[in-house]
């Protein structure tokens, strides 16, 4: 007969905890923004290939996106470290919306035949601006893990980080299907309108999310640390 002591249940995230509820709202917000941002990027890739039939053009798009992600990672990390996480997420959505509105205007005023030329200046302006909007959305995915570290102790971080990973995986899983359907239905127009609408909803929702003071204190500590390190 075994005499080993019973193993205590691992701590869980309970929605009855206000901190967990706030984290859940941030998760949903980041999920919506992540899905729509990646949808835009997949959509422009599909759109360019269908319009130009140029594999080279789609390859350049992928290369530009990779370089942009790598080159902005350190800067984005610094922004997240030294500013309030909620403010960073709000700024991310606002910047993305601005780029998408600009792209929608360009798309609507440009003749359809312009998109069939892989060397078209307007086509590449559209691509670069869309890429900037999508890259700005990466601020959210960088900010979310820091929220986990700040809000939860070591006994709960594994579960919270697991949910963050799930959100990221779901974002990638559904975007290719959604973007393909949108491009097949109406080119980039509906995709951009949907992106602007979803991000606007996410921005308004985030405004009403009450972020715990601990996140504000963490941002303040980061700002003080930056000032101290830069002092002569």
Structure report:
The chain is mainly α. It has helices at residues 18-52, 55-82, 85-109, 121-151, 154-186, 189-207, 213-230. The chain has 7 helices and no strands. The radius of gyration is 21 Å and the shape is elongated. Mean pLDDT is 83; it is low at 222-232.
What structural category do the secondary elements indicate?
mainly alpha
State the shape.
elongated
Distance between the termini: 69 Å
Radius of gyration: 21 Å
The H/E string reads HHHHHHH
Tell me the total number of β-strands: 0
Major sheet attributes? none
Q: Per DSSP, what share of the residues sits in E-state strands of 2 or more residues? A: under 5%
Q: What is the percent of helical residues?
A: over 70%
Counted by DSSP, the helix tally is 7
Identify low-pLDDT runs: 222-232
| Arithmetic mean pLDDT | 83
Main features:
7 helices; 232 residues; 0% strand; elongated; 81% helix; mainly alpha; single chain; disordered C terminus
């Amino acid at each position: 007969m075994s005499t080993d002591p019973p193993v205590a249940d691992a701590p869980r995230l309970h929605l009855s905890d206000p901190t967990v509820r706030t984290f859940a709202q941030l998760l949903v917000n980041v999920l919506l923004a992540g899905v729509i941002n990646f949808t835009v990027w997949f959509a422009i890739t599909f759109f360019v290939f269908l319009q130009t039939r140029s594999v080279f053009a789609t390859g350049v798009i992928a290369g530009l996106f990779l370089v942009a992600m790598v080159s902005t990672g350190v800067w984005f990390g610094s922004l997240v470290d030294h500013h309030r996480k909620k403010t960073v997420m709000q700024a991310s959505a606002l910047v993305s919306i601005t780029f998408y509105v600009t792209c929608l205007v360009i798309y609507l005023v440009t003749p359809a035949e312009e998109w069939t030329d892989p060397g078209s200046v307007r086509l590449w302006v559209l691509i670069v601006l869309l890429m900037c909007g999508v890259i700005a959305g990466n601020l959210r995915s960088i900010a979310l893990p820091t929220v986990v570290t700040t809000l939860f102790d070591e006994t709960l971080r594994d579960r919270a980080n697991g949910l963050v990973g799930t959100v990221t995986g779901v974002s990638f899983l559904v975007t290719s299907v959604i973007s393909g359907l949108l491009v097949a239905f109406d080119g980039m127009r509906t995709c951009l309108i949907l992106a602007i609408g979803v991000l606007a909803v996410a921005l308004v929702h985030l405004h009403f999310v009450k972020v715990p003071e601990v996140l504000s204190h963490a941002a303040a500590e980061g700002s003080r640390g930056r000032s101290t390190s830069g002092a002569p």
